[in-house]
Amino acid sequence: MKRHFRWIALPVIMLLSGCISGVDYGKVRHADYVADPRCTPQAGAPVDGAALPLFFVTSRLPDCRTADIELLSYRGDRVRYGRFAAPRDVKVGGKERFRTPLALQDQSDWWRALQAETDRRHGRVLLYVHGYRESFETTTKDAAQIARMTGFEGPVIAYSWPSQHDVLGYAVDETNMYHDVRNFRDFLKALAEQPWVREVVIVSHSLGARLVVPAIAYVDRAAPSADSRNISNIILASPDIDRETFERDISDGVLAPAKVARDRRITLYVSLKDKALAASRALHGYPRLGSPYCFDPFEAAELKAEGLPERCYPDAIPGLTVIDTTDVSRGTTGHSNFLLSAAACRDFIAVIAGKRTRPERSPTRWRHVFRLLPDPSMPKEMDETICHRNAEAETP
């Protein structure tokens, strides 16, 4: 199923609060899912790193009852570690299923494998955190696409919390995301404290921003001052987080002057055509960081009177760059432009590579805000080529 179809009904369904679904325990004891020893791998158990080149950390409950381990939408009894490859369609019981090849791994072995891969590269690690309505398969699909598209020189880690992969499950996803705050922040702290990690590039999508931003603030407070310096390049794609709360808190926390002076930065990808965030705004009552919606109608009227687009952005904060993808939006909902639109993908690739500026960015009256405009040399047919290309392709 195409990514944009996953969101097609969200604006209507989220407003029908009486229809929001819950979650039940299921027909299988959770202890039975993990009874097989493969759910608790022993130290030294072999894992084929060549066949499973990507890394994952998850708080999802695994199902180890069948030949192929699955990661479910339930909360797990603990955080688990493993390796994976890009998901693919496979035959299961005579039916076509979209599955991620994976293996769980002993935690100590996992950290040693991550160190070996990091040392073999340039000390850089990319950590991807998904948003609402994602399964383990869709999460790993996106993480694999990011690895392939950017040609990232270093290990790529997908952090997967127990999203329901259900359009009616937004409230459950919020609940599980907040429940997972401690798990994620402890993992991020452990990653940042590794002496062999030179830089952690963090990419979050949608609801994942609400895990990432406070976790970085926690690491800054809890870790020795030198240990969080390697968290420098932070990308929030379509962040489903309160814009006013972000503005109020960010310069005293994640983008505190001392952190910015040590080269920390945040890049936001926003779009006014993001229907998912418009629905989230209607549900929460206030604008989301990933949408330049003008909550103040007087501000919108002033922009219109000046002949400017009616788009409102977070305040200028040192270390913050806003990339407006409204004009190059793709998909039914415009919620995943960084994975769907050639113009946005090219910009995202450059940011991952550490570039601060690009000539393709169109400046605005706000020095921290840039628009991506349609490029006749990159028609929609180029989206697939740029956003799903091989790692060997030329970096812009």
From TrEMBL:
Naturally occurring in which organism (per UniProt): Sphingopyxis indica
One Pfam family cited in the UniProt record for this chain: DUF900
Lineage summary: Bacteria, Pseudomonadati, Pseudomonadota, Alphaproteobacteria, Sphingomonadales
Name of this chain's protein: Esterase/lipase superfamily enzyme
InterPro entries: AB_hydrolase_fold, DUF900_hydrolase
PROSITE patterns: PROKAR_LIPOPROTEIN (PS51257)
